[in-house]
From TrEMBL:
It comes from Shewanella violacea (strain JCM 10179 / CIP 106290 / LMG 19151 / DSS12). InterPro entries: FliE. GO terms for cellular component: bacterial-type flagellum basal body. This is Flagellar hook-basal body complex protein FliE. One of its GO terms (biological process) is bacterial-type flagellum-dependent cell motility. Belongs to the FliE family. It holds the Pfam family FliE.
Amino acid sequence: MQIGANSLLQEMQSLSGEIKPSGFNSGFSSPITQQVSNTSGSDFGQLLSQAIGTVGELQANSGSLASRLDMGDTRVTLSDTVIAREKASVAFEATVQVRNKLVEAYKEIMSMPV
């Protein structure tokens, strides 16, 4: 089954509006979606680097919220921490899947006869 990039992006954008909890203000404004929609003049390496940087930021934010919650910071709620952790987890899993597809494509290209 082939999934088009545009239909996948539209579905992700529609779902991102549904999962934003009210009152959650961690500074996350869906940078991955912004990067994907602004791909007109960017090369693949830059996009991949930015996406990996965004995943790192999500993981750092998740770790920071978890540490603050463990330390007893009253400004951080359990739900904010769990949501940040899940966002980081989903972003990491997506990155792993992209890496797997790239490795698979590379192996396929390398096994082609010249």
